[in-house]
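Q: A reviewer asked whether we had any structural model of the full assembly, not just the individual parts. We don't, so I'm hoping you can provide one. Inputs are below.
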Amino acid sequence: MAYLSLYALQHRGQESSGIVTATGNEFRRHAGMGQVDEVFTRRVLDQLEGDVAIGHVRYSTSGDSNSNNAQPVLLHHHRGPIAVAHNGNLVNAALVRDELESDGSIFQTTSDTETILHLAARAPHADVVDALVEALRHMRGAYSLLAITPGRMIAARDPHGFRPLSIGKVDGSWVVASETCAFDLIGAEFVRDVERGEVVVVDVGGLHSFKPFEAARRASCFFEHVYFARPDSQLFGESVQAVRKRLGQKLWEERPCDVDVVVPVPDSGVFAAHGFATASGVPYDMGLVRNHYIGRTFIEPTQQIRNFGVRIKLNPVREILAGKRIALIDDSIVRGTTSRKIVQLCRDAGAREVHVRISCPPTIGPCRYGIDTPDQDELIASTQSVEEIGRFVNADSLGFLSLEGMLEAARRTRDELCTACWTNQQPVDLPRAESAQLRLFEKSRR
Ligand code: AMP
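A: Here is a predicted structure for the entire assembly that you could use as a starting point for your response.
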């Protein structure tokens, strides 16, 4: 089940994959670089026996991309073995780690997740769940976390609720996953989300829940809805595909254009384009077709073929585009290079006009909470106006959804969501170097 669920969640990370299983005190781990189908063979799966399992697919937003940082992390400390899989980014991990290292801790990875385990190992509490909770109290930022210890599975979500985490049930057993699409694949029923600030413990006695953290402002990552999550998931209480369609509708209301056909950039623009087309009454058509079978080891030819990089993934359909004025819909512009290439592809296929519409506001700030965005200076919208970006991507016109329009389509207020990538305003106070994290810890030990 863990293996199948990881397949469903592959879009959330393609660098490394791993599973830890446990029977009582006996833990088994297999993890490595690559996607799920590259890391797990039948022989490996047969060796991963156990009554409980957690798995992880990773892309690095904190720490290096190497097999050492593959998750779940499995450590043995004085309370026994513990395995942890973590989604999100902890904004004070580097500071806490510095303090732990200067106090003698030896880290085996460069990922922020290991910091939690070192803190938990030092916590004075006898019970491992209490120790883990105490460690999490000292971490700031985003975590949706799953852990197993002998006889228990623990799920925790940070008090802001940046990243999703959902609970399901299959054949009388509890399952927890980042997205509900994982439940669909294993025939589990979606029960509810792990609430923000909630810790859920599953043991032989069933499922127990408590809320040990100080309350904080809600900050669900709205980029999950815009781009990252799978459209067939239920996320933060909403269907992802339905939200994307509403974003597309709103985009048409705010940035209409006189066109013959609405064309999505597959796969990321598909549902927003559907909403845009429905609202406008303009026909929707798949003027770009995506090849899904490009392996990670694909070798680019050495000779220069114009637009090769994007053409291997997307092929324009000439019959749909030639002679047409098109609205090209995508979810976001980050560096701007993809849009530029796609506009050129459409023009080469004969499109008469290309009007680019983006179903979120301009991305002006890097994400500190677990979405892999480039540094500020590589975000085209952080240095260029919409008009300049429009010229760069060579569109006949360019329109982004406004922040207000996005919130309206989201049916949320600004203080319920994390919108830092569009506003550069952080829902969490970013830690300053002088803040002494472990002194706090010492206080709680007394
Ligand atoms: P670019 O503007 O060339 O950096 O690429 C923008 C495209 O990348 C859009 O089509 C998005 O769907 C996609 N995208 C946005 N954010 C990310 C991300 N964090 N990781 C990978 N792709 C992304």
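A: Points you may want to mention in the reply: The two ends are 43 Å apart (CA to CA). The first strand starts at residue 16 and ends at 23.
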